[in-house]
Amino acid sequence: MSEKLQKVLARAGLGSRRELEKVIAAGRVSVNGKIAQLGDRVEDTDKIRMDGHIVAARTEAEDICRVLLYFKPEGEICSRKDPEGRKTVFERLPPLKGGRWIAVGRLDINTSGLLLFTSDGELANRLMHPSFEVEREYAVRVFGEVNQTHINNLRRGVQLEDGEAKFETIKPAGGEGLNQWFHVTLTEGRNREVRRLWESQEVQVSRLMRTRYGKIELPKKLPLGGWQELDLENVNYLRSAVQLPKETRTCISEEKTSRARERVKSAKIRRAIRKHTERTLKPKRKPKPRS
Known about the structure:
The chain is of the alpha+beta class. The protein is built from seven helices and 17 strands. The chain folds into two domains: 3-54, Structural Genomics Hypothetical 15.5 Kd Protein In mrcA-pckA Intergenic Region, Chain A (Roll), CATH 3.10.290.10; 67-228, Pseudouridine synthase (2-Layer Sandwich), CATH 3.30.2350.10.
């Protein structure tokens, strides 16, 4: 059966359908040697090229929505290649057969933390779209005096060069002197938005780390520069958050998932036993003698 060309390209991990419609309209895609047009449909046997490169098309049966969580270090850029030779976030990722990883949004070179990658262009596009309001949480260290007026302004909204913006929540998280930590949340991902919001109050950001995307949190034991693949439950949480149908398959073996759950369960049990033992062994205070 034939399928729309942009759907086949999106399944190959080359972008979202909306983005690929623009690529087709720009004449960058050919089918069997002829420049493709919007609305073209293709068969499994057709030879598709994009920018002159053969597209390794996958059938729906072969296609599995996969999502990676990556702990981005400072100093890496969110591009596939860099003319200046700087490290990119794609260099450490595992190879993806028949496609490529698509970054869900970006973190600038001086920002670290949670970054998601997926094999599904449509999922990536929807997660990045502000209309779905997927919450992001950041730990941010600022330098400068922060008072209640600044906090109120950032909660109500301030005018930036690309429109009004605000933090959904702001929570103090400690610090000393003029160096203060805050946890803030946003439901959109405009360029350098966290930094620009604080700068609007004449406060500079000295450290910035993304710690959560929706309910997906940065694992405490994941090393800087490390990645892990999300299980089916978390993949489907992300898909449902942007109104996509559930995925039914995963590349993570059930055995590996069960072992991971068992380790978490065992760790919880050990912590509970340790706390109970500490309470039991703690010497009781002797009652003070009555005067």
